[in-house]
Design goal:
This protein is of the alpha+beta class. The protein folds into 3 domains: 123 residues, Immunoglobulin-like, CATH 2.60.40; 44 residues; 119 residues, no CATH class. Helices cover 47% and strands 22% of the residues. The chain has 8 helices and 12 strands. The strands form 3 sheets. Strands 1, 3, 5, 6, 7 and 8 form a 6-stranded antiparallel beta sheet that branches. A hairpin with a 2-residue loop joins strand 10 and strand 11. The protein is elongated, with a radius of gyration of 47 Å. The N terminus is likely disordered.
Length: 319
């Protein structure tokens, strides 16, 4: 039974081998050293035979094929259909290779492989003779004596100046331009550094005074009014007491203020303000007129009395 199975598996390969042929050929068999050698591969298969994939492969595994053979070029596989003398249609798969050999002697180019689906076919090997053709250039000639040539420094300078003159001028101009740009940038940076900086407390007080002129609460915009006052207080607390206020609740900010040196009066005032501000922003409370006036006046007095720049000046004067 096993014998029959092996025979049934072998028969398709045998049929393909008998019906298909894979040949390798070249225009001639004698070439010179390093001369390109065109090699033609041709696979002939009956047209009625169905084939899903066809590709060719050389015996070597890279551009170096062994025995001093080198692969220079490989064309795509072309497919044509022809009619034989027996009135049968055959399909030809053709490919052209370019090889070369840089040694003299007689060499044999090994068979190539053709893969037809799961079937493998081998081409014929081709013998070549590689010879060194003697030419006038290959003949040994008398060596001419060596002449000493003395070139002065000025001649060297003029040669390189003529050859690279524009590049030298461009590089020098680029260096000078870079120098002046850096110098100007440094001078501008020094001017910026020497300009007096407006204290953040002054900016926050100007913002509160500007808020008075907007008349937000007078026009019923209580939420916007208390939001701007809260942002000013948060900015001052973050700067003056180094307490992060971004994305923190009012209770978290008040809890952090308990651990810094702040007047207890302002701590209570801030607690009252944050309670009212949260009520306006989240519970839509409409505060009284006196509460609105007191809120901004409290923020102004808090910044004026706790501003760091004034305290540092007072500290220096006391010393």
């Amino acid at each position: 039974m096993k014998v029959l199975v092996y025979i049934s598996l072998f028969i398709p390969c045998l049929v393909v081998s008998q019906n298909s042929s894979f040949t390798a050929s070249s225009n001639k068999n004698i070439y010179s050293v390093g001369e390109p050698i065109p090699l033609f591969l041709n696979l002939e298969v009956p047209s009625d035979q169905r084939i899903d994939s066809v590709y060719f492969q050389l015996s070597g595994k890279s551009d170096s094929l062994g025995n001093n053979w080198e692969l220079w070029n490989t064309s795509e596989i072309t497919k044509t259909t022809t009619l034989t003398d027996e009135n049968e249609y055959v399909t030809n798969y053709s490919q052209e290779l370019v090889i070369a050999n840089f040694d003299t002697g007689k060499f044999e180019f090994p068979p190539c492989l053709a893969f037809l689906d799961s079937t493998t076919l081998f081409s014929n090997a081709i013998p070549f003779t590689i010879q060194l053709v003697e030419t006038e250039e290959n003949k040994i000639k008398n060596i001419k004596p060596i002449f000493d040539v003395n070139i002065s420094f000025f001649e060297y300078f003029m040669y390189y100046l003529k050859k690279f003159g524009w590049w030298i001028v461009l590089c020098v101009a680029l260096v000078i331009a870079t120098y002046y740009v850096i110098k100007k940038w440094k001078r501008k940076s020094e001017e910026i550094d020497t300009e007096p900086q407006i204290p953040i407390e002054v900016k926050l007080l100007e913002r509160l005074n500007s808020l008075k002129t907007k008349k937000l609460w007078e026009n019923g915009h209580f939420k916007a009014y208390y939001s701007e006052i809260s942002e000013v207080i948060w900015s001052f607390v973050a700067y003056r007491y180094q307490i992060p206020t971004f994305e923190k609740t009012s209770n978290e900010i008040l809890e952090s203020l308990k651990w810094v040196s702040i007047d207890n009066t302002y701590l209570k005032e801030l607690s009252t303000f944050f309670t009212l501000s949260d009520g306006v922003k989240f519970a839509k409370i409409n505060p009284l007129e006196k509460d609105n006036i007191h809120a901004i006046e409290m923020a102004i007095k808090f910044i004026e009395n706790e501003r760091l720049d004034i305290k540092e000046i007072e500290k220096v004067s006391d010393e």
